[in-house]
Amino acid sequence: MKIHTTLAAAILALAAGTTAFAQEKTVTLYSSNPEQAIEAVANTLKEKAPDIRLNSITGGSGVLLRRLEAEASNVQGDLFWSSSFNTVGAFEGQFQAYESLELSAIPEKLRYPGNLYTPANVHVVVIMVNTDQLGDLPAPRTWTDLLDPKWKGKIVVADPANSSTGYTILWGLHKMIGDEELKKLAANVAVSSSSSAVQSGVAMGEYAVGLAFEANAYPYVDGGQEEIELVYPEDGTFITADFAGLVKGAPGGDAAKTAFDVLMSKETQTALLETSFRRPSRSDIEVSKIVKLPEMSAIKVFDIDEKEAADKRDEFLKTWQSYAAAGAN
């Protein structure tokens, strides 16, 4: 009798395990974010929705968006995270509108029309300075400080044709300081193949100044490089949101929506600020209490039209290329 009882218990345990396994749902995330950022999302998801397992596919945002486009007839991904308006705007057909349960905490001015995408974090454009490389030059405090010919070869920016970061920065400067001033800047800058090369170039002393996103430059300050300073220009700077989207026909169904809500949650956005220095899109997180970054209220922001940036991308790239070619001569 004892043998039969043990056997019955084992069968019940096996059945319970099989049921639990069957109830586990997998959500596939396509992401251009670093591993520590994805891990922060996965950890929060494990706490808030333990029945959902996150499977991540990583790569460049453009590559992943084109992959989603190619898979439209056989959808594999559930969520995409993240890229800027001027990039995701060309792939609207691959996504479905979703009004996240967390949307009320996100300022309306940051949102994408019709909630086709949702802003997951906000990037602030800064001047990253290596004070050891300034020589006799004073640290820049405004964008127009960088137009002096004395800065030629000392400034680096990412190629806007290959980097959405580079495009966002140069488009914003074009709208903020005007074409003639942008020509002067083009004569002074070196152009790198990627945004990561901008930060590393300044950190290693190849350049005195880099035009960068706050979240990409701040790790060097946090890492103890005392010569690295982030300048929030006195004449104003601009911001851009990084968007996440729910893939049209997402095979994860309701589980994909739950995972999306977790990505937008206060817990996740706090964890992303702590681990990756991603400034939250939510308005209910006090950034300066978590990391040594200023509150948005302390930053002078110049508004830019993200839709115009997306619509006029090709036109602006041709203009910039002509400026850069003229500046190189």
Could you explain how this protein is built, in words?
With 329 residues, the protein is α/β, with parallel strands linked by helices. It has two domains: 170 residues, Periplasmic binding protein-like II (D-Maltodextrin-Binding Protein, domain 2, 3-Layer(aba) Sandwich), CATH 3.40.190; 147 residues, Periplasmic binding protein-like II (D-Maltodextrin-Binding Protein, domain 2), CATH 3.40.190.10. Helices cover 41% and strands 19% of the residues. It is built from twelve helices and eleven strands. Strands 1, 2, 3, 4, 5, 6, 7, 8, 9, 10 and 11 form an eleven-stranded mixed sheet that branches. Strand 1, helix 2 and strand 2 form a beta-alpha-beta unit. Helix 5 crosses helix 6 and helix 6 packs across helix 12. About 2% of the residues have low confidence.
Features:
alpha/beta, signal, single chain, Iron(III) transport system substrate-binding protein, 329 residues, D-Maltodextrin-Binding Protein, domain 2, 2 domains, Ferric-bd, 19% strand, globular, 41% helix, 12 helices
